[in-house]
Amino acid sequence: MAKSSTMDMTSGNIRKEMILFAIPLLAGNVFQQLYNTIDSIIVGQVVGPDGLGAVTSVAPAINTLVGFFMGFSAGSSVVISHYFGAKNVPGLRRAVHTSVICTFIMSIALMIFGFFLTPGLLVFMSTPESVMPLAKQYLQIYFLGITGLMLYNIGSAILRAVGDSVRPLIFLIITSYY
Q1: Which of 25, 99, 134, 163 is the most exposed place for a label (fewest CB within 10 A)?
Q2: What is the pTM of this model?
């Protein structure tokens, strides 16, 4: 597994260290895809075709949100890793605190606006009328839980910025299981 210390990543065989760091990232991507696949299977079997259609119809909105925030997290991790590598503890603390506070504020705004703007968003996305009620319910629930998702993403980005790619994977596996 990947080392959790930047000193280990900057000495020795760089290619080996990069591969060891990337393995948990790849495993996390595979695990996330399996989670989404199983989620779709369960929704399709329990709720039926309309439920699966509702989940599928809101996927572009969810992917856009996740992509936006992954970009924000990546940008934060660049700043954090810079301060960490420079051993600038005050700058590191400021960058981490700023990232977490911005994430929390953005998540609250997205939760509120997303919840209330869901009907208009679904109309804008040309969601089929047959799945509109379930799509609305699913997306509003998603927006209500977005704070947890966003805090996980920024927390993972912070850990990866300081060289730890294993703990975010472990946390993803544990939270997905429960």
Answers
A1: 25
A2: 0.80
